[in-house]
Amino acid sequence: MKCGEGMRSFNICTIKFYYLIFCEIVFWQQLVGLPYQGSSYYQKCTDSETKQELLIGDVIQRRGRCIRAQCLGTLEIWEDSCQIPHLPGTCSQLPPPNEFLDYPDCCPLHECKSYEFNENGETVETLTYDHHGILKKQNIIKFLVVVDHQKRNPNDNVSARFNI
Q1: What share of the chain is helix, strand, coil (3-state, %, to 5)?
Q2: What are the residue boundaries of the structural domains of the chain, listed by start?
Q3: Separation of CA 42 from chain center
Q4: Rounded to two decimals, what is the model's pTM?
Q5: Cα separation of 110 and 41, whole Å?
Q6: Per-10-residue mean pLDDT for the chain, 164 residues long?
């Protein structure tokens, strides 16, 4: 039986039509990204430090401590803060350029230096890492030793250093 053949067919066709409209609305809401208006959408987390209420997905910056806090769907607060990475060698912590920047720009950098000496000179390598241990900058300085054999006494161990 097709739509339009009798009263019972009319009711089935109407139900199919409304179901199709409902599916279209759900499809377009998901495609456009409209927020879900159910009961969990309005649930809140309370940041224990600032006492600020956050909706699920909201993010705040905790100034002065370089921490970003976010309200999760489980109604828990997730905190991102500066980490001290495990780096090889001897490293020192550099202060951030501006402590009032938002996370992660307020995190300090870590600078690691290494030295290499040989008969030709000295090499100083400086590596700068972020708080995740990702290399941000590399600087290599090479000092060469030059000996002028024509003008100096062969028994003289005086040499000149050049910074390249």
Answers
A1: 20, 35, 45
A2: 1-34, 36-81, 83-163
A3: 28
A4: 0.58
A5: 41
A6: 54 74 66 49 86 94 88 94 88 86 91 91 94 94 78 55 55
Find out whether 121 and 146 touch, Cβ atoms under 8 Å: no
Please report the beta strands in 25-71, taking only residues with DSSP state E, as ranges in sequence order.
Answer: 44-46, 53-55, 59-62, 67-71
* Tokens representing residue 96 in the block: 């951030």
Any idea which residue has 């499809």 for tokens? 27
Does domain 36-81 sit in CATH 1.10.260? no
Contact 58, 70 (CB under 8 A): yes
For residues 144 and 160, give the distance between their C-alpha atoms in angstroms, rounded to a whole number: 8
The dihedral through the CA atoms of 19, 20, 21, 25 has a sign that is positive
Contact 72, 56 (CB under 8 A): yes
- Residue for token digits 């000092």? 143
Which of 129, 145, 146 minimizes the C-alpha distance to 92? 129
What's the residue count for the chain?
164
